[in-house]
């Protein structure tokens, strides 16, 4: 069987299997013309692991059948997808079409809401319709598909027009991250080549010497830039965008995996750079025999106090949870921690800086202290994993050939996020080997890895070396 036939078989058999299971349950797998809803989300989430190799095979089949010239020329222009989507968010199109209903709306009426050029808006909508983000049902008449309806903000168009800066609040965050990708991230990406070719910045690990600084003509690191008054729009969208990156079942990657229930009563868990404490709150709600400390910058801890008072009243007052200001680059003052926790922290820093805060925790660790890093792991795209096979949980079961070994990685946004982190702050997502090197330089070693299905993060369980 040729690779083309094998890929086609994976697609055909996989689709038939999903359809058969849906039919047996009396449901239909959502097609693009079905508006996004909690019901469609539930079905897609349930079948995500089965759909993943089908999607990966479809991508690979396209690459296999494509001539290099049109394929690479098209890929070179893919940057217009995020900018087009950001323009769609800025003109409120998904919610305008949501109110218009299944018959759709003429582009002249869509454009009238935000007073933009109707012909140019129509060209953007038609471009996105080639990838089924919208559907053109009659000449210049467009309606939402399931994909574009995923950007809806859940507010009336009148409310959005009256307060456009607040439009992302209390939404799913999808529109906010689409806007972030199309504005701030694309501006940064445009300067990535010259930043990487520069003999200074191309080798730098400083968060102030990334493509972001060139793109925004600023000496400030990303987070400080966001806090400047003139960047209020970017600041408003950022926390909403981060909500879209959180998987619906993300607490699973906190409460499961490591055996929290086996820790002795009174064991101290220290959530380093823990923000307002959402990770700790997920643990504290289940594992009440433990004690917890959330550490972060003073301004964040102040917000955390309000958050805990509203969401878990009494936990702080009774001493069950402590909220304490601490800079993770300063010496760690807690010396009796059973577990130090880091969630989505290591990927925010280059090795130079990550080594510093990991070393601070190692200096404060007891021989029995564990370090648990909850973060993404970049998979290798080869089948030879012999270099990491001695770490329990490090190697993943590989998909059959001719598929690339790990379909969940190839269709996800992990590798894109890695490049985005490089461009924004000179930091990175890491492979297992890169984690081994980083942790070894700070006095830790990986004991094992607790794996979860993508897009959930993984748990890297470490002990003092």
Automatic annotation (TrEMBL):
The keyword Transferase applies. Gene3D superfamilies: Vaccinia Virus protein VP39 (3.40.50.150), Winged helix-like DNA-binding domain superfamily/Winged helix DNA-binding domain (1.10.10.10). Transmembrane segments: none annotated. Residues 236-379 form the O-methyltransferase C-terminal domain. Residues 93-149 form the O-methyltransferase dimerisation domain. Keywords: Methyltransferase, S-adenosyl-L-methionine, Transferase. One of its GO terms (molecular function) is O-methyltransferase activity. The keyword S-adenosyl-L-methionine applies. PANTHER family: O-METHYLTRANSFERASE CICE (PTHR43712:SF2), PUTATIVE (AFU_ORTHOLOGUE AFUA_4G14580)-RELATED (PTHR43712). This is O-methyltransferase-like protein. The lineage of its organism: Eukaryota, Fungi, Dikarya, Basidiomycota, Agaricomycotina.
């Amino acid at each position: 069987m040729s690779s083309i036939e094998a890929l086609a078989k994976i697609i055909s058999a996989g689709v038939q299997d999903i359809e058969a299971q849906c039919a047996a349950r009396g449901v239909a797998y959502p097609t693009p013309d079905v508006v996004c809803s909690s019901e469609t989300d539930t079905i897609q989430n349930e079948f995500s692991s089965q759909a993943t190799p089908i999607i990966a095979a479809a991508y690979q089949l396209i690459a296999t059948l494509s001539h290099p010239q049109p394929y690479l020329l098209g890929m070179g222009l893919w940057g217009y997808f995020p900018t087009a989507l950001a323009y769609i968010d800025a003109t409120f199109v998904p919610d305008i079409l949501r109110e218009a209903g299944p018959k759709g709306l003429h582009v002249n009426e869509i454009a009238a809401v935000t007073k933009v050029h109707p012909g140019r808006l129509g060209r953007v909508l038609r471009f996105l319709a080639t990838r089924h983000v919208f559907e053109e049902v009659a000449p210049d008449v467009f309606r939402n598909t399931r994909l574009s309806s995923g950007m809806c903000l859940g507010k009336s168009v009148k409310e959005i027009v009256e307060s456009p800066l607040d439009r992302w609040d209390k939404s799913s965050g999808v529109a906010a991250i689409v806007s972030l990708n199309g504005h701030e991230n694309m501006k940064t990406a445009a300067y990535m080549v010259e930043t990487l070719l520069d003999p200074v910045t191309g080798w730098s690990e400083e968060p102030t010497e990334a493509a972001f600084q060139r793109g925004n003509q600023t000496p400030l690191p990303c987070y400080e830039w966001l806090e400047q008054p003139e960047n209020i729009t970017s600041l408003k969208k950022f926390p909403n965008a981060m909500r879209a990156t959180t998987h619906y079942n993300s607490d699973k990657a906190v409460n499961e995996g490591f055996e929290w229930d086996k820790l002795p009563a009174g064991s101290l868990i220290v959530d380093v750079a823990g923000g307002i404490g959402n990770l700790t709150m997920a643990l504290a709600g289940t594992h009440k025999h433990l004690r917890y400390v959330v550490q972060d910058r003073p301004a964040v801890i102040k917000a955390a106090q309000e958050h805990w008072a509203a969401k878990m009243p009494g936990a702080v007052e009774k001493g069950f949870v402590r909220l304490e200001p601490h800079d993770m680059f300063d010496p760690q003052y807690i010396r009796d921690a059973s577990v130090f926790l880091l969630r989505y922290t290591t990927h925010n820093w280059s090795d130079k800086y990550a080594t510093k805060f990991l070393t601070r925790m190692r200096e404060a660790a007891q021989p029995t202290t564990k370090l648990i890093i909850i973060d993404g792991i970049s998979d290798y795209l080869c089948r030879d994993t012999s270099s990491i096979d001695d770490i329990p949980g490090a190697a993943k079961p590989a998909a059959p050939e001719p598929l690339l070994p790990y379909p969940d990685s190839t269709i996800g946004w992990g590798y894109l996020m890695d490049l985005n982190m490089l461009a924004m702050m000179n930091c990175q997502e890491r492979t297992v080997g890169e984690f081994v090197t980083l942790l070894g330089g700070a006095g830790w070693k990986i004991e094992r890895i607790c794996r979860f299905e993508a897009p959930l993060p993984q748990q890297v369980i470490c002990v003092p070396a």
